[in-house]
Amino acid sequence: MAAPRPAVAITLVLLGLGLGATLLRDQVPLGGAGAPPSASAPAREAAARLQNEQNTMDIVSRYEPGLVFISTANQVVRADPMGWMFGEGPQTEVQQGVGSGFFVNAQGDILTNYHVVAAENGVGAADSITVRVMGQAQAVPARVIGLAPQYDLALIRPVNLDKKWIRPIPLGNSDALKVGQKAVAMGAPFGLEFSVTEGIVSSTARQVPMGFSAGGQGITQKAIQTDAAINPGNSGGPLLDSGGNVIGINTQIYSPSGQAGAAQSAGVGFAIPINAARNLLPRLQAAGGGLVLAPTLGLEPGLVIRTRGGDLPAGLSVLSSAALADLGLPDSGLLLGRVEPGSPAAEAGLKGGRETRAFPGGRITLGGDVIVSADGQPVDALEDVQAVLLGKQEGDTVTLGIRRGGQGEPQQVRVTLSARAFQ
């Protein structure tokens, strides 16, 4: 009856090998090949798992009440192209939206994404905004305090909400983040209110297009990357560290199709660093329901391309090599058509162009300076300059690399952001 035992032993060995090298590595001591494995190792591992679980549960129980579920409604006029055949005019329908936000102070101010509360056409706020907090059965209306489309941030405040429901979540320091830190995302993915996911900080300075520029496209700026699951409806919700401090505002994901946006999660999500929102908070609070714009230097691009959607500023790289050589311009950069008098750019000595020429598809103003870099980052469009300005405050400086009149070697010019830059 003892014969089957070797076969059983062999089967168990093969099974152990099938579990992978990690299991074997954890059970073989690194120092002293003959030493038996520590009997307390599995206990320590289990305790570590329980400690992390307890930390997550503590964060959720303490700070989830500060999470806000946001609903919006926009009246949209839809015209049926074949409606004239049946005597039907344009039809009005209500477009619903959902998102997340969180309280930042005892006054009830709620930070969220601009795109969560934006109008259907992306200009201004939605026709109706309501919010609901955890434990409250009914939603209450909310009003806009300030909108910052370029930053994809908005500040709203509930109307007639009992103060007992206002539970601010503390703001952390996103500049101190390290890759590998724990990250807890809260929000309402797919409208599933008050959901929580957990992961790590995958990158602290990923450059992705966010917000909305004058041309409608996103502005490349620094974002926190995380593998904590983020899906449509999570936008505007907080990303917290292991201390329960907000380190970012969940804003978008990288979809399986390879595009940043609002498709289903692929384990790559992005959050606006909370320090960027913290710096902008006083301006949002003072906006009186209006727009908060990124600081400007007082520049107008000298190259404009005509498109179906209207005239758009462009960088020199859109021109052919032959055209650039003929005009004596560099391969890339932002050509300055005009510098506003009294602006930070004018105070720094930047010059606009003198001669405007029209060509099939656009126009160009020649003779002005060409910006080729901003704070060391390459520049080929107005959005590239805006991206550097997003985190600036009054009194800060930006170092521009320019080619004077589009000619010669690049030289450095320091521009100070006066109060005028923020008006």
TrEMBL record:
Belongs to the peptidase S1C family. One of its GO terms (molecular function) is serine-type endopeptidase activity. It holds the Pfam family PDZ_2. PROSITE patterns: PDZ (PS50106). Keywords: Hydrolase, Protease. Residues 304-406 form the PDZ domain. GO terms for biological process: proteolysis. This is Peptidase S1. Coiled coil: none annotated.
